[in-house]
Write a structure and sequence with these properties.
Keywords: GTP-binding, Hydrolase, Metal-binding, Nucleotide-binding, One-carbon metabolism, Zinc. Belongs to the GTP cyclohydrolase I family. This protein is of the alpha+beta class. Helices cover 40% and strands 26% of the residues. The protein folds into two domains: 38 residues, GTP Cyclohydrolase I, Chain A, domain 1 (Orthogonal Bundle); 132 residues, GTP Cyclohydrolase I, domain 2 (2-Layer Sandwich), CATH 3.30.1130. Strand 2 and strand 3 form a beta hairpin. The longest helix is centred in the last third of the chain and has 16 residues. The radius of gyration is 19 Å and the shape is elongated.
Length: 187
Amino acid sequence: MAFDYDKLQSAVRMLLEAVGENPDREGLLDTPKRVAKMYAEVFEGLGKNPEDELSAIFNEMHEEVVIVKDIPFFSMCEHHLVPFYGKAHVAYIPRNGQVTGLSKLARVVETVARQPQLQERITSTVADTLVNKLNPHGVAVIVEAEHMCMTMRGVKKPGASTITTSVRGIYQESAGARAEVFSLMRG
């Protein structure tokens, strides 16, 4: 996806003016350019299909749980355009020995998070991406995050953590399997 840097810079300049700042003062001269560059990076997941990150699939006769936990991510709340950040924990049980590279799970999280988002959507999109591409026996995703929209504005509660989960396959069907994988992911 192509970003319109000129339009972004213009918007930042107008924002500075709208809050009563002088965008021509020394400290702000390059701010529109820096912010435009930052937004291009923060939103680089726009227009990307997270399934493309799972291009490396290997045959390894392993049909037990695979977990990558504590995957750090940063995203932007689509309601306030302020950051939220945290960790994702991703687990799946391969079917017919179809496994993917461990780093690919982190790349899926990164691709999904790098667009205007909701935490709930990140959680379910990561789970659905694994189901669609790998057809595993089960998928479990936990996302823990702190939202700056709750920390710096509104209710102003720094340190509050939001936890969301998504389960598919065997983890939907079996409370015991779900409890076991959640214990491993959070432990």
